[in-house]
Amino acid sequence: ALALRSFIRQLLAIAEGERFVQLIRLFLPEVVHNPAIAPAGLAGLEEMARFVERYLADKMARGELRPGDATLTAQVLLSNLMGAVLRRQVIRDPAMLRYSQEELAESIASLMLHGLLPER
What we know:
The chain has six helices and no strands. With 120 residues, the protein is mostly helical.
């Protein structure tokens, strides 16, 4: 459980890093006006999703997380992270900005773990 919390904190720190946020700010308006460029931006997301999927699959195989669909779980986790990043860094939503990065990561981790912890 502690390892997943740390992993989510690290992912969020990367996603809220200035370089990543700049890419999002450049990419989103372009893809809205030219959907044909979407595959160019998806490559990075797919790579991140595969990395998260492998991490989760390993934890599931070790019995640290309940067995499940690691691919779908990775997509749900990344959707939570990216939704938060968009609301915080692009839209500048005050409802999300009032939470620290640590609070946000802890909340996502707690929500994910509640459904992923092995049954006892």
